């Protein structure tokens, strides 16, 4: 009798595990839109004090991607790249609001019909 083949129990699990990692988690798009792209906050992020723990001593930072770079050359080449351009395109769209999320879930007031018993029917007198 030959060896039985292993059942593939971890089929398609790689993407699930990869998506749930928190080690390389960056800021969400709405956080960047509402907080970081504000001109006052943006200036503070671009002119950060020297930090020995961050790449490039925290001197080369892309606000749109929320990412530190080692050198100015690396930052400039990142600005020309496809990843940065896609991120900027997504950030131009307005952020979702709580009201919009509630409307999508069916909790909003727009488009909701009132029951027939609650409607006032005009009568001719």
Automatic annotation (TrEMBL):
Source organism superkingdom: Eukaryota
Compositional bias segments (type: Polar residues): 116-125
Gene Ontology process terms (BP): ribosome biogenesis
GO CC annotation, single: nucleus
Keyword Zinc-finger found: yes
The keyword Cytoplasm appears for this protein: yes
Native source species: Suillus subaureus
Compositional bias of kind Basic residues: 1-11
SUPFAM superfamilies found in the cross-reference section: beta-beta-alpha zinc fingers (SSF57667)
One Pfam entry name: zf-C2H2_jaz
Annotated localization: Cytoplasm; Nucleus
UniProt keywords, alphabetically: Cytoplasm, Metal-binding, Nucleus, Ribosome biogenesis, Zinc, Zinc-finger
GO molecular function: ribonucleoprotein complex binding; zinc ion binding
Protein name (Swiss-Prot/TrEMBL): C2H2-type domain-containing protein
C2H2-type domain location: 60-84
Ranges where the record places region Disordered: 1-27, 105-125
Protein family (similarity comment): Belongs to the ZNF593/BUD20 C2H2-type zinc-finger protein family.
């Amino acid at each position: 009798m030959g060896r039985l083949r292993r059942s593939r129990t971890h089929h398609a699990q790689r993407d699930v595990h990869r998506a749930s990692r928190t080690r390389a988690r960056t800021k969400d798009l709405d956080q960047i839109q509402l907080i970081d792209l504000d001109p006052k906050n943006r200036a503070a992020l671009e002119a950060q004090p020297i930090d020995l723990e961050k790449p490039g001593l925290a001197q080369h930072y892309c606000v749109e991607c929320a990412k530190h770079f080692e050198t100015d050359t690396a930052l400039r080449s990142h600005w020309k790249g496809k990843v940065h351009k896609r991120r900027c395109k997504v950030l131009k769209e307005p952020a979702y609001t709580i009201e919009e999320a509630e409307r999508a879930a069916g909790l909003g007031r727009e488009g909701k019909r009132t029951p027939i018993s609650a409607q006032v029917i005009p009568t001719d007198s």
